[in-house]
Amino acid sequence: MRNLLNFLAKYNHLIVFIILESIALYMLGTANSYHNTRIVRGIRGLAGGFERRVSNVRSYFHLRTISQSLARENALLRTSLDRYRGEQGKVFFSVTDTVLSQRYTYTSAQVINNSVNRQKNFFTVDKGRLHGITPDMAVIADNAAAGIIVGCSDNYSVAMSLLNLDFRLSARFRSNSYFGSLSWDGRDDRHAVLSEIPQHVTFGLGDTIETTGYSAVFPEGVLIGTVSDFEKTGGDFFTIGVLLANDFRQIRHVTVIGSLMKEEQLELENLYK
Amino acid sequence: MINRLARFAIIFVLLILMQILLFNNIQFSGYVNPYIYILFILLLPIEIPAWLLLIISFATGFTIDIFTGTPGMHSAATVLAGFIRPWVLRLSSPRDGYEAGTDPSMLIYGLRWFLIYASIIVFVHHLALFYLEVFRMADFFRTMLRVILSSAFSLSFIVLLEYIRRGK
Predict the structure, then answer these.
(1) What pLDDT, in 10s, does the model give residues A194-234?
(2) What is the spatial distance between Cα B2 and Cα A260, in angstroms, rounded to a whole number?
(3) Rounded-to-integer distance, Cα A183 and Cα A171, Å
(4) Taking chain B, what is the end-to-end CA distance rounded to the nearest angstrom?
(5) How far apart are CA A76 and CA A143, in angstroms?
(6) Distance of alpha carbon B106 from its chain centroid, rounded?
(7) Smallest Cα distance from A201 to chain B, Å
(8) pLDDT value of residue A154
(9) DSSP state, A180?
């Protein structure tokens, strides 16, 4: 007993070290469920308020680019609205049909904290559970894929950025619909990698890459980027470098997209797994 | 004593603010992310008990973790830095030893001594931090390059901050 006490007294710093390091590594290990644990939710609320204030100041410096991108989006929406108006004007059209019901919800939000310089990047947006945001919703910025919501507090949500080593997205060519898996290799914040495209597929530099909608997270046909380079890898596949449409250093206004039919799709798919 | 405590509190707040408002937004080509908040661990008094140093290290790392949303990553790296600090102090001790009641700062023991002392701790801290972040061995050499470049930048900023402190 005496020896034990002596030992403890002599090596107390070692014991403190082991305890603290274990706590830290434990937190690191449970990082995925972290955003939803109760204590951290409170702390994040606090940090969220702080980030909100910083971002308020910062947004003044970006007003020009923000209004430009909003104007661009407006023009795009007006164009597509005109197209629909033209189609519907021809025929009288009023049917209550569950098949034609709304598939996605759109919530506009602002990025209040963001990083691009780490290997696992996340960003925080200023809408949360109270605004109907839940984990696994898609986030787009400037009409191009930006990330996936992974955790929500009452007023804030954290999204896994496309620039995250854990991020996977099913993507395809707009031209020929061959699809592969999009991920980020951690090298450069402007480029991602599209893999699993077989070598018989023909495509060219500059071809558009978009989402497939298979995962039930992103809607079909959301822009991701364009082909910037490619190389043949073993196993008859291409590894394709994708120049991302979004500059993640600049993202500010985002839209969070929730699929109203995701549950139904996943439920059905789980029956056959 | 109270005076000294207040001084460290101010240094702590300033370093944390600088880290999250300024240095977390800095990046050159994706390879360099300076982490200067480790200067706080470097500056704590020489005779501080090892256990207290570890707890302060943990608190510092955890504060950064909260603001960067990386649970445990900075805590783990900073606790490791705090753990090796007593050894590094002993290793790099000047010929006539340390004076009682002083802080291990560049102002007192000079640039040469500070560079040796700081570079070891900054390097170990960055090494732990970047490998914990990637958490795989696939990009071993690329991560090592990031560690070395970022350490060099952090160290330069830390020395710069020490010069600014001396100027005051």
Answers:
(1) 988 888 888 888 899 999 888 788 888 889 999 998 888 77
(2) 59
(3) 10
(4) 21
(5) 10
(6) 14
(7) 29
(8) 86
(9) E
Cα–Cα distance, A65 to A141 (Å, whole number): 13
Q: Given CB atoms, is A18 within the 8 Å cutoff of chain B?
A: no
For residue A188, pLDDT beyond 80:
yes
pLDDT of residue A252: 83
Q: What is the pLDDT of residue A34?
A: 46
Domain ranges within chain B, ordered by starting residue: 2-167
Q: Is B68 within 8 Å of chain A by CB?
A: yes
Q: What is the interface size between A and B, counted as CB pairs within 8 Å?
A: 92
**Per residue in A13-48, is it b (16+ CB within 10 Å) or e — as a string?**
beebbeebbebbbebbeebeebbeeeebbebbeebb
Residues of A in contact with B58 (CB under 8 A): 20, 23-24
Q: What are phi and psi of A101, to 5 degrees?
A: -75, 170
Identify which of B65, B72, B79 has the shortest CB distance to residue A17.
B79
Tokens for B35?
């982490």
pLDDT digits (tens, 9 = 90+) for A173-182: 988 888 999 9
* Mean pLDDT across B23-42: 82
| Inter-chain residue contact B71 with A40, CB threshold 8 Å | yes
Q: Supply the ipTM of this predicted assembly.
A: 0.84
CA distance A137 to chain B (A): 19
pTM: 0.69
Residues of chain A numbered 149-188 and touching chain B (CB < 8 Å): 158, 165, 186-188
Q: Which residues in chain B are contacts of A31 at CB distance < 8 A?
A: 70-72
CATH of domain B2-167: 1.10.1760
